[in-house]
Specification:
The protein is α+β, with helices and mostly antiparallel strands and 207 residues long. The chain is 45% helix and 15% strand. The protein has helices at residues 29-39, 62-74, 98-108, 116-126, 132-144, 161-181, 188-201, and strands at residues 4-5, 13-14, 25-26, 40-46, 51-59, 83-85, 90-95. The strands form 2 sheets. The chain has a 4-stranded antiparallel β-sheet. Strands 1-2-3 form a 3-stranded antiparallel β-sheet.
């Protein structure tokens, strides 16, 4: 028999314990968005050409996060295991897969208030609508406004996520050709270089 927890903090929760989960299970995205506004975090790491973004929840009660994970898994979101954070002695769950992060952002965005700009920024970056530098600046701006309790971060890369992926593939192909052929005349790499030289010197270029 299902029992609902009523009231501002309990709306959208049920005391069911599916699949052996010893805790509460969320029933809708609106309630989860409210929890994310309070105890959720957009975590990111700035790399050379891209930004790694993930969503996370922290709580001092493990069964509660187990319930969050059960809800996410039921909505096709790939969520990590609930793990102990030694430094703060709290429990932590992370969602890091790009498609899962985008799905969560899309579903929580209509109901979020405090972290609406952060979720919107995550979606914009993962959909290659803004660069890594613009994403980092958006997060820093939330820190300045007191909406985000983190430190100001150095600037991000000037590429969108899609641009960074294309650059990475091009570098990979170049490295593969150099490893296999070197600078031998007639090699695919030397042919690419020669083709580019001919194209640049062609009188038709720019017409």
């Amino acid at each position: 028999m299902r029992q609902s927890l009523l009231g501002p903090m309990g709306a959208g929760l049920a005391t069911d314990k599916p699949s052996g989960v010893d805790g509460y299970v969320y029933r809708n995205w609106a309630c989860l968005a409210g929890y994310f506004d309070g105890d959720g975090t957009v975590e990111f790491r700035v790399l050379e050409r891209r930004v790694e973004v993930r969503l996370a929840f922290d709580d001092n009660w493990k069964p509660f996060l187990e319930g969050v994970r059960a809800f996410l898994l039921s909505k096709d979101v790939v969520a990590g295991l609930v793990r102990r954070k030694v430094q703060s002695k709290t429990w932590h769950i992370v969602i890091s897969g790009g498609e899962s992060v985008k799905l969560m952002c899309r579903r929580m965005l209509p109901y979020s208030t405090k972290k609406q700009m952060e979720l919107s920024g995550v979606l914009s970056y993962l959909n290659s609508q803004i660069s890594g530098a613009q994403f980092v600046e958006l997060m820093n701006d939330q820190v300045r406004k007191g909406q985000r309790t983190r430190k100001i971060r150095p600037g991000g890369p000037p590429y969108t996520k899609g641009d960074a992926a294309r650059i990475g593939r091009a570098i990979g192909v170049k490295h593969m050709l150099e490893t296999r052929w070197g600078d031998q005349a007639g090699s695919p790499l030397s042919s690419l270089v020669e083709d580019k030289k001919r194209l640049n010197s062609s009188p038709l270029v720019g017409r």
